[in-house]
């Protein structure tokens, strides 16, 4: 069969039920598994062979309500409830004709009056009240506001297109940012790896003090990572961390990345000499100085001091 139906634009699958019956020829899905029901503009269902039989010779009356129909006016049913189907189609049709926006009106009052008129027309069509007059009213309005309607349709299309382009652009930028971010992580990892190899070689070959060599290595590592950061913040080679990596990166930090003993936070804070005891008169601090169970007092002092030095960000090297 070479029937042309109005395609359903939402790309939704057509609705089908096991107990479908064609109201015209009474064939049902039980007897005819491949039966396809279509809906007419007067919202009456009939099967493909009925449509072919009744309308292939040209326009003919609907066998249910006598409205004149064409074969090409039938469409596939999308919603189970035909009243929903009807309302959606009517509203879609009306919104294409009555497509004015609020900024086209001088006052809110005028805009509200306009909306009320549109709703009234929609209501009459939905409930089959004065359909003939309503259709004439719509036709009159379309004729009178022809230019305005098509201008508004054009504008809507343009806005939709712009919105789509903006979306595509955002997607592209997301991909680009992610790529740059991964590249940066990779090169930082490589720099760390190189520094480690370098350190091992130096430790094995140099006759300098091992502690000195480790310190030097840490400084080099810090410098190279700072260089990396400044390089990435330059305009042109810009880098902005993609927002959707928030959280994702955090969990990586905590769970997946192995502890790097060369990182600053694990370096020894050797800038203070631990006293055997501390005198403190402030009650709150005094309380904090008491070790919790299992801690030796001196160990507790060390933790407290280290925490304090870390807090005020005293240079560690
Ligand atoms: Zn039929
Ligand atoms: Zn009908």
TrEMBL record:
Subcellular localization: Nucleus
Keyword entries, A-Z? Coiled coil, Metal-binding, Nucleus, Zinc, Zinc-finger
Which spans of this chain does the record mark as coiled coil?
A: 131-198
Native organism: Furculomyces boomerangus
Q: Name one GO cellular component term.
A: transcription factor TFIIH holo complex
Q: Which GO terms describe its biological process?
A: nucleotide-excision repair; regulation of transcription by RNA polymerase II
Q: Identify the residues that the record assigns to the RING-type domain, covering every copy.
A: 22-66
**What NCBIfam families does UniProt report for this protein, alphabetically?**
cdk7
List the protein's name.
Answer: RNA polymerase II transcription factor B subunit 3
Q: Which GO terms describe its molecular function?
A: cyclin-dependent protein serine/threonine kinase activator activity; zinc ion binding
Q: Where mainly found? A: nucleus
UniProt lineage? Eukaryota, Fungi, Fungi incertae sedis, Zoopagomycota, Kickxellomycotina
